[in-house]
Amino acid sequence: MSQDKLPRQLKWSVFVCVIKHLGYAQMPSGSGSARSFPHALRKPTVVTFHEPHREPLRHGSVREYLRKLEIIKEEFLVLLKNCH
Q1: pLDDT at residue number 1
Q2: Residue 15 confidence class, pLDDT cut points 50, 70, 90
Q3: How confident is the model at residue 28 (pLDDT cuts 50, 70, 90)?
Q4: Are 54 and 75 contacting, i.e. CB atoms less than 8 angstroms apart?
Q5: CATH number reported for the structural domain that contains residue 57 in this entry
Q6: Which residues are within 8 A (CB) of 38 and not within 5 positions of it... i.e. 6 or more apart?
Q7: Residue 3 is assigned to a structural domain of this protein
Q8: In sequence order, what are the residues at sequence separation of 6 or more whose Cβ sits closer than 8 angstroms to the Cβ of residue 63?
Q9: How many domains does the chain fold into?
Q10: Residue 73 lies in a domain
Q11: What local confidence, expressed as pLDDT, does residue 58 receive?
Q12: Looking at residue 3, what is its pLDDT?
């Protein structure tokens, strides 16, 4: 992976690590694949993502999730380095 490009695929556990570095906490999950992460001081205050089943997040999903988190690619890549 180039240092300035988003990964083509990303393990869910690595993505969750990045979210936690942003200060979000994972809420207990019920049935289904929706996962919610609240943060009292950051906007958005709650983000919800679809956890893929037995496969990594694809490039398009990662881009969409960054949009939902309201962070730029460069910030994500810095946080990602702490999660590998």
Answers
A1: 45
A2: very high
A3: confident
A4: no
A5: 3.30.920.30
A6: 24, 25, 27, 45, 46
A7: no
A8: 6
A9: 1
A10: yes
A11: 92
A12: 55
